[in-house]
Design brief:
two-stranded antiparallel ribbon; Peroxisomal Thiolase, Chain A, domain 1; 399 residues; globular; 12 strands; single chain; alpha+beta
């Protein structure tokens, strides 16, 4: 089995629902990050890319027909470069990394582009076909932007509650109160603001042509606890989950360049990190937010390390309550989690979030000199994924 390395990572700024990126097609967003992550490694012959693997959660609109293949063609890569799209909802792009890593580990190539894309603004309404010809009544359009739709009646009702109501249930079970949720959300905005100000994201971001967006659109530098506390609950009367402590609907794309040890020669650069292990887990659908706990534990076991050795964690913040529940279950210091902001501030374009957090993790390890890091993400319908990275830079005790 060959070792697998992460050599580079890029992403677009993440736009608000209906915001600066709403006018850009998802396949164009995907093509942009694919073109960029290949093009900014000029020693790489694009024909040497062995596979493009992109994640996408919806795939019902302009991102249909295998958006990874569309992105490769639109990016100008040779038509000989194959591509596939994977869908594990919010974990899709992290799943793309795992799929690409397996290929490289088996020796089936040297270079894989992995990533993901989502335009929640442009997610279409769908119209189910009628069960019988020539129905006399009206038909209802269904939004594909987020959550359950066209639910099979055989599915238990307890599993198909809204994501917000599910988070309310998890918060109750894990005793995560409103004040803690709001404080966690505020920290996310503060950390993201500080990261942008000090230039952490400067080498990570590619601007979207035609969109006047230079930073993540949902970050609120002026956020305060009083403002967050004043927001009403959204999903349950008397509940704790608000628009302020939930991730916003978003648009964006991200990509990473994965490779074998031989890829260093092809790229003319050294890797940022080694992909040391990964894990998947599943539990009851309504407690989807807790599934990263076991996924990360499995990934660490496969990497051969323990939580005491982890220096940085990137946990996708779908909701503050679920993120806090995971952090507490792992028993880790919250200081090492999302040092440069999380999805509550940055945004959560479903298919793009996995490689967003993985790229941020690799760069955080490089910046801090920490050796081991974990990227973890919760997934609707009760799943979680995690990937362990080892910093391979100098002076960190790594490889």
């Amino acid at each position: 089995m060959s070792e697998v390395f992460l050599y580079d990572a890029v992403r677009t700024p993440f736009g608000r629902y209906g915001g600066a990126l709403a006018g850009t097609r998802p396949d164009d967003l995907a093509a942009l990050v694919v073109r960029t992550v290949v093009g900014r490694n000029p020693d790489l012959d694009p024909a040497r890319v062995d596979e493009i693997v992109l994640g996408n959660a919806n795939g019902a609109g302009e991102d249909n027909r295998n958006v990874a293949r569309m992105a490769g063609l639109l990016a100008g890569l040779p038509v000989s470069v194959p591509a596939t799209t994977v869908n594990r909802l919010c974990g899709s792009s992290l799943d793309a990394v795992i799929a690409g890593s397996r290929r490289l580990a088996l020796g089936e190539g040297d270079v894989v582009v992995a990533g993901g894309v989502e335009s929640m603004s442009r997610a279409p309404w769908v119209l189910p076909k009628p069960a019988t010809p020539f129905p006399a009544g009206n038909a209802e359009l269904v939004s594909t932007a987020l959550g359950w739709r066209l639910v099979n009646p055989a599915m238990p009702g307890a599993w198909t509650v809204s994501l917000g109501e599910a988070t309310e249930q998890l918060a109750e079970r894990e005793k995560v109160g409103r004040a803690d949720q709001d404080a966690f959300a505020l920290r996310s905005h503060q950390a993201a603001t500080a990261a942008w100000e000090r230039g952490f994201y400067d080498d990570h971001i590619v601007a979207v042509p035609g969109a006047e967006l230079t930073r993540d659109e949902s970050i609120r530098p002026g956020a305060g606890l009083a403002k967050l506390a004043a927001l009403p609950p959204v999903f349950r009367a008397g509940g704790a989950v608000t628009a302020g402590n939930s991730s916003p609907l978003s648009d964006g794309a991200s990509a990473v360049l994965l490779g074998s040890p031989n890829a260093a020669r092809l790229l003319g650069r050294e890797p940022l990190a080694r992909v040391a292990g990964w894990g998947a887990a599943a539990n009851e659908p309504q407690f989807f937010g807790f599934a990263p706990v076991e996924a990360a534990n499995r990934a660490l076991e496969r990497a051969g390390i323990s939580w005491s050795e982890v220096a940085a964690v990137e946990l996708n913040e779908a909701f503050a309550a679920q993120a806090l529940a995971c952090v507490r279950a792992w028993g880790i210091d919250p200081v090492i989690v999302n040092r440069n902001g999380g999805a509550l501030a940055i945004g959560h374009p479903l298919g793009a979030s996995g490689t967003r957090i993985l790229g941020a993790l690799a760069r955080t390890l490089a910046e801090t000199g920490g050796r081991w890091g974990v990227a973890a993400i919760c997934i609707g319908v009760g799943q979680g994924l995690a990937v362990v990275l080892e910093n391979v830079g100098t002076g960190n005790g790594g490889a």
